[in-house]
Amino acid sequence: MSLLIKNGKIYQNGNLVSKNIFVDKGKIRKITSQELKADKVIDAKDKVVIPGLIDSHVHMREPGLTQKEDFLTGSHAAAAGGITTFLDMPNTKPPTVDLQRLDEKRKLARKSVVNYGFHFGSTKDNISEIKQVKNVASVKIYFDYTTGDLKIADRKVLKKIFSNAKIVCVHAEDKNVFNAVNIAKDAKKKMYLCHVSSKEELDYADHDDVYVEVCPHHLFLTTDN
User: Fold this and answer.
1) CA distance 108 to 118
2) Cβ contact 123:161 at 8 Å
3) Rounded to whole angstroms, how far apart are CA atoms 9 and 21?
4) Among residues 186, 224, 225, which one has the least CA distance to residue 207?
């Protein structure tokens, strides 16, 4: 099936220009000013057309906390906001820290209306699972407490997790950001640092192999607020 998104505005060389986007078999084939025919036509006049966004830090809360969210409701909200792919965090009930639970979560996620992936959780004794896990975005380590009891403080365990994961995603606050960055450097591993909320944390994370995310309220609110 082919799709034509016509009259939409796209950013090209820093400018907004009106173009037609031709999609066939799920792939963009042409971006052009020419008039084209397609099985389905969407008139995007006066609208800006951008790629679907990827939200790399999502809590769909399934299983165990579905009074808050699940893969169906959360993915509908994602689609409404222009998110076409999300990556779900592991601190559900029970947490996603072994291959069986990951497989169960994959089955639950089939109801999603957008694309999805998963972060895999870590504990002080699931190294064998971390070594075997495939097709996940990262292994998540909790240096501080949050929903679920997954905090790990033992430095030897932390180093072992870093060494056995392809990429690590970290929940750390204040000085623990500094500790996490140092362990990542020692292990020569890339690290994705979640929800940095202060200039000091950002300064700690100033390293080539450290990727940082921030939430909107961290950008617009201060301690005075």
Assistant:
1) 12
2) no
3) 10
4) 186
Residue with tokens 């300064």: 203
Give pLDDT tens digits for 148-200.
789 999 999 999 999 999 999 999 999 999 999 999 999 999 999 999 988 89
Give residue for tokens 């905090």.
Answer: 151
DSSP state of 111: G
Nearest to 195, CA basis, from 56, 2, 66: 56
Please compute, for residue 23, the number of CA atoms within 13 A of its CA located in the half-sphere on the CB side. Answer: 13
How far separated are the first and last CA of the chain, in Å rounded? Answer: 51
Q: Is the pLDDT of residue 115 over 80?
A: yes
Cα separation of 69 and 116, whole Å?
15
Q: Label residue 22 by pLDDT band (50, 70, 90).
A: very high
H/E run at residue 28 = strand 27-32
Residue 150, token pair as written in the block? 């997954």
CB 59 within 8 Å of CB 105: no
Question: How far is residue 128's CA from residue 33's CA, in Å, rounded to a whole number?
Answer: 55
pLDDT for 12: 87
